Amino acid sequence: MVKERKYDLLNKEYFYGISALFREFSEKKIPAVLVGGAAVQAKIASLASNGRPLNEVQGLENLLRKTDDFDISTVATDQQVIDFLKNIDGKYDEAVGNNIYNLKIDRMGLKKPKIIVERAGENDYSDSLISLNIENSPRDLLRLDEKYYETIINNSETLDLENSGIKASIKVAKPEYLIAAKSLRFADRDREDIYNLTKAMKESNSKINWYGLKIIGPYNIDRIGEIKTLLRGDQ
Asked: Which of 126, 11, 108 has the alpha carbon at shortest distance from 67?
C-alpha cells in the first residue's frame, strides 16, 4: 500500500503529477489554476531556477515547504471534474529519460480525490500518493470576496518548469492572490509560505502588487501590517 508522504517539486513523481494534470487541463480546454502551497513552491522554483532544470538548482530544497496535495481552482462543473478524473486514470503512462511514469486514480470523487504516480527506473522504483483539492465554485474561497474568483483564474500566470527531463507548463495564481489566501489562515505553514515567497521575489527584484492584495477582499486589510512585520523579521 502506498504511504502518504509530503513532497516538493524536486520529487520526480510529484512533479510528473502536476505536469500531467495541467497537460490534461490544457487539452480539455478547462480553465484551472494552481493555488495553495504547491503554487508557492512553483513560483519560488521559477524564480530560483531562472529557466534551469530544478534538479540543477543548488539549495532549492531549502526554499520549498513540502506538502501532500495539489490545490486547484477551476470553473469546471462537478460533472466536468469527475470526467476529468476518469480521463486521466491510466492515460499518462510514458517514458521520460530512464524512467517510466504512470498516473492513476486512487480515490475518485469531488471531495479529496487522490492520485498515485509511480516511477520505475533502471534500478529503483518509487510511488507517491497525492491528494487533489479541486475547488470549482466561489463558495470554496475562505472569506475571500467571491466576485474575484474568476479573476484569480483568468489572471493567472503560466510557469514553464523542468525537472529531471520532465517538462511542465503550469498555470499558477499570481503572488498577491496566494498571499491574500494565506493571510486569512495565517497558520505557521501559511506564514512560512508568505515569508519564503516574498523573500524569493525580493531577491529576484520582482515586485509584490500590494494593491492587488487589498482588492482581493476586505478581510485582508488588517493583515497587511502583520505581513509586512513578518517580512521585516519581527516575528
From this structure: 11
Contact between 98 and 40 under an 8 Å Cβ cutoff? The reply is no
Q: How many CB atoms lie within 10 A of CB 122?
A: 8
Q: Which helix (H) or strand (E) holds 163?
A: strand 157-163
Rounded mean pLDDT for each run of 10 residues along the chain, 235 residues in total:
79 97 97 96 97 97 96 95 96 94 95 95 92 85 72 94 97 91 85 91 85 61 67 55
93: which 3 cell numbers?
503512462
Kindly give the interhelix angle for 188-203 and 175-185, rounded to the nearest 10 degrees. 150
What distances in angstroms separate CA 227 from CA 28, 59, 114, 152, one per listed residue? 38, 25, 33, 21
pTM, two decimal places: 0.91
The DSSP output letter for 41 is H
Q: Which helix (H) or strand (E) holds 135?
A: strand 125-135
Q: Indicate the pairing of strand 93-96 with strand 99-107.
A: antiparallel
Rounded Cα gap, residues 90 and 117, in angstroms: 10
Q: How far apart are CA 96 and CA 94, in angstroms?
A: 7
Each domain of the chain, given as residue ranges in start order, spans: 12-174
Closest by CA to 7, choosing from 90, 186, 181, 131, is 131
For cell 475547488, the residue is 135
